[in-house]
Amino acid sequence: MEDGMRGLGIDESEIAIELFLVHWSANANGYKLAFCYVTFVLQSPSLYDAIFAEVALAFRSADNDRNSSPMNRIVHHSPRMEAVFLEILRLMTDPGTSREVLTDTFIGTKKLRAGAKLLVPYRQLHLDPAIFGDAATSFDPDRFRRQHGALARL
Question: Which pLDDT tens digit goes with each residue over 57-86?
Answer without folding.
Answer: 877 755 556 666 777 777 777 888 889 988
